[in-house]
Amino acid sequence: GFYANLLLTQTPEHILTQTNNKTEILCELKKEHTGVYWYRWSHERQHFEFLVFSNTLGKATYGTNVSQDKFRVQEARSHSSYSLHISHLHPSDNGTYYCSISQSSQLLLGSGTRLSVADALPLPLKTTQTPVSKKAVPWIPKSKAASKKGPCSPLVWIPLATGVLLLLLGLVPTAHRLYRLRRRLWLRIHRQ
């Protein structure tokens, strides 16, 4: 994981977009390579899918049932940067996308880009502006201010900390699954 990140950088980390839009994921390489592979991990189907390989001559090889109209790889800056363009987005495109290079009969994966496609994006809540009061704000000594029950009271931070902990614990099985998948891919390639 860490070693791969020194050789290839993938951005952005997350993309949230609407159905029928298009998007782009960038992969920058710091190592000699024969081309870039793109994969998608489907969280829903628990499935790792090969999308496309683009060699340094710009020739693309697509995976089974992968639409050339939907996925296009563009090379820039003399083979050091590749971008995956995905068009006609649909919720079935949700997943984590990985750029990858082959090195010493193993695949080095980028950090991944989580793509979420929704029919409608959540809109920010409208805030109503309250008129500024011209009354003087009373000065509160530091000791009194610290003793007031404010936003950092245990009633707020204990459930918040518990929620964060549960979220992190929920990520452990996914991280383990990805590690096993990555190892299985490595073994499969290594055997060939």
UniProtKB/TrEMBL annotation:
Domain Ig-like: 12-116
Compartment annotation: Membrane
Membrane-spanning residues: 156-179
Top-level taxon: Eukaryota
Protein name in UniProt: CD8B protein
GO molecular function list: coreceptor activity; MHC class I protein binding
Pfam family, one: V-set
PANTHER family attached to this UniProt entry: T-CELL SURFACE GLYCOPROTEIN CD8 BETA CHAIN, T-CELL SURFACE GLYCOPROTEIN CD8 BETA CHAIN-RELATED
Gene Ontology CC, one term: membrane
Entries under Gene3D superfamilies matching the protein: Immunoglobulins (2.60.40.10)
Broad class of the protein's primary localization: membrane
Membrane topology note: Single-pass type I membrane protein
GO process terms (BP): adaptive immune response; regulation of immune response
Species classification: Eukaryota, Metazoa, Chordata, Craniata, Vertebrata
Keywords: Adaptive immunity, Disulfide bond, Glycoprotein, Immunity, Immunoglobulin domain, Membrane, Signal, Transmembrane, Transmembrane helix
Organism of origin: Oriolus oriolus
